[in-house]
Amino acid sequence: MRQGVKEIVLISGKGGTGKTSIAGGFAMLSGDAVLCDCDVDAANLELILNAEHLETREFQASKKARIHKDKCIECGQCGERCRFEAIHDFQVDPWSCEGCGVCSRLCPAGAVEMYPVLSGHWFWVFTTSIGCSKCAGILGFPPLCV
Ligand code: SF4
Ligand code: SF4
Fold this sequence. Notes:
Layout lengths: L18 H12 L21 E8 L2 E6 L9 H5 L5 E2 L2 E2 L9 H5 L5 E6 L2 E7 L20
Antiparallel strand pairs: 1-6, 2-5, 3-4
């Protein structure tokens, strides 16, 4: 039973609204806390909490297409149906491919492989900046007690 444990979620569909700053402010007031910055593009809460990196791991959240020439019968369907115009001369441009998987599903020869790509990294950090509430209001600086 998690008596006394509270969860606060800050969410917005728009970037730049100040979610991270508000989360940092709550963190400074919270005492002991576990914080999770789930921003898909730029998780950067640790920057304003003077955090120390403990562990970094790779994060794979999407795939890209690859055509195996030895299986391809050059029917051209994949290039015609790719709405991102990522397929030319029976080859996939990985910079244009959005990983939708349409080409893989419609290929009559099973020549398209969807392979996972590195989307970014996730990491654990530790900070002493939220150890007490006396530093509230000076986000971005180390705690006054050390
Ligand atoms: S996965 Fe989608 S975007 Fe990528 S090449 Fe195939 S159809 Fe185009
Ligand atoms: S749909 Fe399949 S067989 Fe046809 S051109 Fe594309 S990869 Fe080759």
